[in-house]
Design goal:
The complex is a heterodimer of chains A (109) and B (114). Helices cover 0% and strands 57% of the residues of chain A. Chain A has no helices and eleven strands. In chain A, the strands form two sheets. In chain A, strands 2, 4, 5, 9, 10 and 11 form a six-stranded mixed β-sheet that branches. A five-stranded antiparallel β-sheet of chain A has the order 1-3-8-7-6, with no helix packed on it. In chain B, the strands form two sheets. In chain B, strands 2, 4, 5, 6, 9, 10 and 11 form a seven-stranded mixed β-sheet that branches. In chain B, strands 1-3-8-7 form a four-stranded antiparallel β-sheet, with no helix packed on it. In chain B, a hairpin with a 6-residue loop joins strand 5 and strand 6. Classes of the chains: A mainly beta (109), B mainly beta (114).
Chain lengths: 109, 114
């Protein structure tokens, strides 16, 4: 079966750095996406990785290792507005997104 | 209209009733999707459409039907609602269905079936 695993909840301090991990087992791989979802709102796109390595976009970076079936999202200089759920999703061999359950990130002052 | 709109925002429905959730996008995206989101579970794909006139089944299609008569609209119908269909429903669209095509999401419909 297809499976995306990520921690259920993480807590971090304002101004700090946090790394959210995602491991996956899917039938085929056509890219990995990270989305942010604030409570009661729709998911919004953060990043896309299809090749191994690090993609940096402002305070957010995403890393991919295809051989290990592993990705992480790195958030720097945390702000209170970063409190949200972070969803990892993999596009499988049918080009459909398989989603993890999401990691709820709590930022404390 | 800007992006994707969904209607209604929320609905309480008696079991056995028929219900259509509406979704409209103005980005001229070819692909559209319906997901349900339940607590503790990832988004699960119900149905999708890669282009107007075609539809496909996702992971959890039973009890749901869709149509794609034109590019902009992608309604989701529950023929006879059951309590297990209580969920938040998101419609999404993307320019295409290939590898790199980020999906844009509507605001969601919160459905409660009693």
């Amino acid at each position: 079966g297809q499976n995306i695993d990520q921690p259920t909840e993480m807590t971090a301090t304002e101004g700090a750095i946090v790394q959210i991990n995602c491991t996956y087992q899917t039938s085929g791989f056509n890219g990995l996406f990270w989305y942010q979802q604030h409570a009661g709102e729709a998911p919004t796109f953060l990043s896309y990785n299809v090749l191994d390595g690090l993609e940096e976009k402002g305070r957010f970076s995403s890393f991919l290792s295809r051989s290990k079936g592993y990705s992480y999202l790195l958030l720097k200089e945390l702000q209170m507005k970063d409190s949200a759920s972070y969803l990892c999703a993999v596009k499988d061999s049918n080009y459909q997104l398989i989603w993890g359950a999401g990691t709820k990130l709590i930022i404390k002052p | 209209i800007a992006g994707i709109t969904q209607a209604p925002t929320s609905q309480i429905l008696a079991a056995g009733r028929r219900m259509t959730l509406r979704c409209t996008q103005d980005m001229r995206h070819n692909a559209m999707y319906w997901y349900r989101q339940d607590l503790g579970l990832g988004l699960r794909l119900i149905h999708y459409s890669n282009t107007a006139g075609t539809t496909g089944k996702g992971e959890v299609p039973d009890g749901y039907s869709v149509s794609r008569a034109n590019t902009d609209d992608f309604p989701l119908t529950l023929a006879s609602a059951v309590p297990s269909q209580t969920s938040v429903y998101f419609c999404a669209s993307s320019e295409g269905s290939g590898s790199y095509n980020e999906q844009f999401f509507g605001p969601g419909t919160r459905l409660t079936v009693l």
